[in-house]
């Protein structure tokens, strides 16, 4: 484990959101001098003599000047988030008060915390592994029931425990292989190759399942990317506004108004959808609009789902079918939408029936709820058990893929007998990549990259 980032400083930061509208703000300190430093400016009980997990009323003073009446909560290490002595000062949410208290405690010897430094200390001090620490950031960023549940499951060790079991089984055989190296001249075999092969195949299957889970896990974490596409002036922007229930996109009768993509998201039954309103697809001599059309095509290729709109007042069934063929060629799930349903004739309905469309009027908010239900059906996330271990982090996927490659080399070595030293090397490589996920194997650069993305105070 890396130790270059461990600091003996007592750190301080605002733990609540800066500038938030609320009555209370929380200032957090962590380090060996945290309780003593706060005690120097706290008028009330002697905090250095109080039990862990207790709350005390008093005032914070700069000399004889009272800054604020506060509550000081004491956490004595190792029974704290960081495993160090920690104090949380609950003060009134005034920018002036917050600044004065933090400045005062920095003068007394604390240091302003860096982004994610409290969680980094929790990791370095053994309070959680690296995948759990990353789940803390995911939990803070969660914006749906599904992403929240997955982050909670990972933060509480669901993913870590599964990896720990895999590593323990692999370490057992690795130790037997290493033992064989000590008796290489005697040509003995401590690790049963059939049992080793069965274990590697079992681990390989579990890791393959985890890798496959990333597609759904990433969607639950970051939202389902849904492109709203169609010809110009069919009502794409009006539909986006109807889905968001706000005037997010400019609506105009002039074709080609939307020349770039517009993105926003909503939560439907616990699932986040990221809607992307795009430029109308048509041939155009306008250079700027042509760029927009090309971006539309690129966005459609990247989407998880496409909402394709048609306008019965301007599209004949033959033209509609031609556009459908183009969308089908992308091999991406799509929903066929006939907009302006209040203007459609019975004859047109009969023509469009072969497409099994959803009829809506984005302008009059007709059919929007039906569309939302169809979106949920299309992504089929309701059947996902978020209690299952699910990978949501690209770093974890890459490490798992590297583990798979190493395991495949081990299997090759078993089927095509190679010496124990090469077999041991491939097993060690697999263990190395698994260790990268939990932080058993790490570097200062990796930790700085991960924790720099956290908010200050966490």
Describe the structure.
With about 450 residues, this protein is an alpha/beta fold. It contains 15 helices and 13 strands. The chain has helices at about 35-40, 95-110, 115-125, 130-140, 145-155, 160-180, 195-220, 235-245, 285-300, 315-330, 345-350, 370-380, 395-415, 420-440, 445-450, and strands spanning about 10-15, 25-30, 40-45, 55-60, 65-75, 85-90, 110, 225-230, 260-270, 270-275, 305-310, 335-340, 360. Strands 3-4-5-6-2-1-7 form a 7-stranded mixed sheet. Helix 5 runs antiparallel to helix 7 and helix 13 packs antiparallel against helix 14. The protein is flat, with a radius of gyration of 29 Å. It starts with 10 loop residues before the first strand and ends in a 7-residue tail after the last helix.
Give a brief rundown of this model.
The protein is an alpha/beta fold and 458 residues long.
Give the overall silhouette.
flat
How many helices does DSSP assign? 15
**Structural class label:** alpha/beta
Query: What summary fits the major beta sheet?
Result: 7 strands, mixed
Name the helicity range: 40-55%
What is the total tally of β strands? 13
Our measurement of the CA-to-CA distance between the termini, rounded to an integer number of angstroms, reads: 21 Å
Portion in beta strands: 15-25%
Roughly what is the average pLDDT, rounded to an integer?
82
Give the ordered list of helices and strands.
EEHEEEEHEHHHHHEHEEHEHEHEHHHH
Strand order of the largest sheet: 3-4-5-6-2-1-7
What is the CA-atom radius of gyration, in angstroms? 29 Å
Poorly predicted regions: 248-260
């Amino acid at each position: 484990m890396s130790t270059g980032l461990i600091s003996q400083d007592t750190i301080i930061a605002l733990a609540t959101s800066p500038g938030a509208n609320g009555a209370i703000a929380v200032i957090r300190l962590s380090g060996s001098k945290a309780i003593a430093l706060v005690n120097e400016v706290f008028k009330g009980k002697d905090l250095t003599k109080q039990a862990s997990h207790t709350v005390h009323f008093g005032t914070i003073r700069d000399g004889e000047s009272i800054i604020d009446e506060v509550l000081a909560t004491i956490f004595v290490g190792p029974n704290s988030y960081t495993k160090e002595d920690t104090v949380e000062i609950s003060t009134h949410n005034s920018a002036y008060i917050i600044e004065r208290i933090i400045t005062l405690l920095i003068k007394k010897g604390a240091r302003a915390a860096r982004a994610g430094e409290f969680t980094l200390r929790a990791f370095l001090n053994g309070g959680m592994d690296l995948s759990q620490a990353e789940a803390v950031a995911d939990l803070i960023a969660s914006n749906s029931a599904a992403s929240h549940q997955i982050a909670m499951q990972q933060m509480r060790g669901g993913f870590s425990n599964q990896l720990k079991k895999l590593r323990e089984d692999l370490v057992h055989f690795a130790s037997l292989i290493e033992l064989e190296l000590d008796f290489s001249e005697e040509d003995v075999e401590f690790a049963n190759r059939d049992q080793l092969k069965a274990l590697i195949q079992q681990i390989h299957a579990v890791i393959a399942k985890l890798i496959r889970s990333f597609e759904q896990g990433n969607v639950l974490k970051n939202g389902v990317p849904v492109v709203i596409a169609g010809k110009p002036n069919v009502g794409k922007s009006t539909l986006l506004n109807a889905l968001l229930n706000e005037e997010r996109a400019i609506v105009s009768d002039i074709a080609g108004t939307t020349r770039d993509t517009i993105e926003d998201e909503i939560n439907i039954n616990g699932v986040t959808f990221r809607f992307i309103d795009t430029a109308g697809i048509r041939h155009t001599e306008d250079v700027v609009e042509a760029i927009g059309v090309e971006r539309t095509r690129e966005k459609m290729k990247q989407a998880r789902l496409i909402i394709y709109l048609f306008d019965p007042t301007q599209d004949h069934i033959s033209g509609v079918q031609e556009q459908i063929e183009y969308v089908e060629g992308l091999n991406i799930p799509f929903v066929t939408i006939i907009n302006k349903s209040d203007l459609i004739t019975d004859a047109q309905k009969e023509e469009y029936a072969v497409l099994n469309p959803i009829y809506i009027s984005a302008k009059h908010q007709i059919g929007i709820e039906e569309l939302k239900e169809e979106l949920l059906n299309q992504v089929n996330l309701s059947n996902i058990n978020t209690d299952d271990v699910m990978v949501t982090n690209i770093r974890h996927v890459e490490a798992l893929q590297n583990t798979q490659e190493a395991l495949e080399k081990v299997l090759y070595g078993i089927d095509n007998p190679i010496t124990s030293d090469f077999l041991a090397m491939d097993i060690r490589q697999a263990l190395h990549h698994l260790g990268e996920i939990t932080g058993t194997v790490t570097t200062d650069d990796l930790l700085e990259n991960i924790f720099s993305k956290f908010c200050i105070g966490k």
